[in-house]
Amino acid sequence: MTIEQKLNDLGYALPTPTAPAASYVPVRQSGKLLFVSGQISQGPDGITKGCLGDSLDVGAGQKAAELCAINILAHVNTVVPLSQIKAVQKLTVLVASTPTFNEQHLVANGASDLFIKLLGDTGKHARAAFGVASLPLGAAVEIDAIIEIE
After folding, report:
1. β-strands 85-96, 141-149 pairing
2. pLDDT tens-digit readout, 63-98
3. What does the DSSP 8-state code read for residue 64?
4. 67-81: string of b/e by CB count within 10 Å (b at 16+)?
5. Alpha-carbon gap, residue 145 to 94, rounded angstroms
C-alpha cells in the first residue's frame, strides 16, 4: 500500500503544497537529505489557530501536528515520490502555548505517530519540541523536518 493510500485510509489526502509566505524555499536538497521548511497546521478547513493551554487542548494540538506532517509530505512529494523516503531523520516541533503549558512533547506525538503509521520504522526520528509565544499567521503548530531519500 502506498503512503497516499495509507493517508486516504486515515481520512486525509495529500494536499497541493502552499507557496512560501515569506522569503524562503519550502524544500532544500543537499545530497540525499531534504530540509523541509517549517510547515504550519493548515488543512482543508484552513489554519488551526490558537494557543495550547488556553484555547486548544492536547488532542487539538495533536491534530494540528498531523496537518503539519501531511504538509511536509506534500512538499517532499514535489522533489521525489514519497516511495523514495529512506528515513525521517529529525523533526523540530514548535507549539504556540501558554507559559505554564508543558505538554509540547505530547502535541508533537501527533506528527511523530502519523509518520510511523505511514512509514513504519522509516518514520521513526529524532525530535525536539518547544513552546513558543506565537507562530506565523496564528498557527497552533509549526514543524520542520530533515528527510533522507534514496
Report:
1. antiparallel
2. 999 999 999 999 999 999 999 999 999 999 999 999
3. H
4. bbbbbbbbbbbeeee
5. 12
Strands 46-47 and 33-40 come out as unpaired
User: How large is the C-alpha radius of gyration of the chain?
Assistant: 14
Residues 6+ apart with CB under 8 A from 5: none
State if pTM tops 0.90. yes
C-alpha cell recorded at residue 20: 512560501
Pairing of strands 33-40, 42-43: unpaired
Distance CA 90, CA 87 (A): 9
Check whether 21 has a pLDDT greater than 90.
no
Mean of all residue pLDDT scores within the chain: 97
| C-alpha cell recorded at residue 63 | 491534530
Return the amino acid letter for 93: V
Q: Would you say the C-alpha torsion 70, 12, 77, 116 has a positive or negative sign?
A: positive
